[in-house]
Amino acid sequence: MTLIAALCPEHPILVSDILIGQSTGTGPLSNFRPYPVPTNLDPNELVRQQTPNPDVIIAGMTQKTIIAGGRAAVTFAGNAQCAEIVAKKIAHLGSDVNLKSVQEILHDYRTADFSAIAMVTFDGGVDITSINTKFGRTKQFGQVFASGTGDEAFLQLIASLDGNLALPRGGAVTRAIVSTLSIFGSMLGQQMRTGSGLAQAYGGIYELTTFYDGLIRKVGDVLYLYFEVTKVEPIKLRLQPMLLKVSYMGDLLVIRRTTLCHPDDARCREESTASTTVLSPATRTIEKREEVELRANIPRLELDSAYTVTYVFVPQARPEHQIVTLVHSRGRSGEPCLHVESDDDRVVFAEGFVRRLGDAAARAIESV
């Protein structure tokens, strides 16, 4: 019950979801309570709709990509005990870490219920190695490795996007990050709109890990928005109220889910929900005292982010063109795509950003 993957275009990327499965055993499903995740209040209901008597349901969340000293990272699917052992062994390699030593560790734990993909640095470059993964080759994303219950869906999505995703400007690292975030935007938008992915028991949020500034790191400070086209001539966009923000505090993943309300909508303000999820790497747990301290020190939610990922649903377009994703990188333009008015907390979008969304939606509609 997971999705792990690696994309190897000009610059390799590791991908992982956060959901943990639990066997339903032979007991009644009523024994299992709803388990809310950032993109849905009860994905297990979606799992039941997909499979009336599922073998596995969603029972937890964790970071499945574990970084070892900035020189190696491993992401896993399946047996969590194997993953913890493998991650610790790779971390203990210290300065001796290299592709061969990592491959030896992975193959020592090659069992039917454990898959892994590792990223290893060498002389400023990056190598990818894996065990028990499916493999594909694309023009735009290079070699693609995937494993977990979401592997087939992910490979199909990548194949559908191959050659159709606009390449951003900038260096190889920026292009790889922005292209991957565009894929994330498509998957997360579908989760929020239809439950797609969650019904197959993978998703929740996706982590992106890559090599930049001399170390293997995770990419945070990412805001996810969801729009829908409600009118064609002229194009009119409606912002859906739920948004997600992904960031990191040290090695902890912080996921914010909040609802935006119209200033005059008192009912929305009363019913709106905000939640904060803090997840540790799978190799450690968050102690109660640490959790209390963390929640007290989590900074105020900032909508202006390093990356703003926008999912636009265009129901007027052909099915294959109904999903448009755009990524705004603050580092590339230096300009924020939105800001919050200090006097009344209104969210204001930059005109150029709204124009980009409208133009992209118009092109999708023109394909009809």
**Overall pLDDT, averaged?**
86
- Overall geometry comes to globular
Under the CATH scheme, which class of the largest domain? Alpha Beta
Number of strands: 21
Full CATH superfamily name of the largest domain: Aminohydrolase, N-terminal nucleophile (Ntn) domain
CATH architecture of the largest domain: 4-Layer Sandwich
Number of domains: 2
Q: Helical percent range?
A: 25-40%
How many helices? 9
N-to-C span? 37 Å
**How would you sum up the major sheet?**
7 strands, mixed
Taking Cα atoms only, what radius of gyration do you get, to the nearest Å?
Answer: 21 Å
Strand content: 25-35%
Structural class: alpha+beta
CATH fold name of the largest domain, please? Answer: Glutamine Phosphoribosylpyrophosphate, subunit 1, domain 1
Q: Uncertain spans, ≥5 residues at pLDDT below 50? A: none
Notes on the structure:
The chain has 368 residues and is of the alpha+beta class. The chain has helices at residues 43-50, 80-92, 99-108, 151-161, 172-194, 266-271, 288-297, 330-333, 351-366; strands at residues 4-8, 13-16, 19-23, 56-61, 65-68, 72-78, 114-122, 125-131, 134-137, 143-147, 207-212, 215-218, 222-231, 236-239, 242-249, 252-259, 275-279, 307-313, 323-329, 338-340, 347-349. The chain has two domains: 4-215, Aminohydrolase, N-terminal nucleophile (Ntn) domain (Glutamine Phosphoribosylpyrophosphate, subunit 1, domain 1); 220-366, no CATH class. The protein has nine helices and 21 strands. The protein is globular and about 60 Å long. It starts with a strand and ends with a helix. The model has no long low-confidence stretch (mean pLDDT 86).
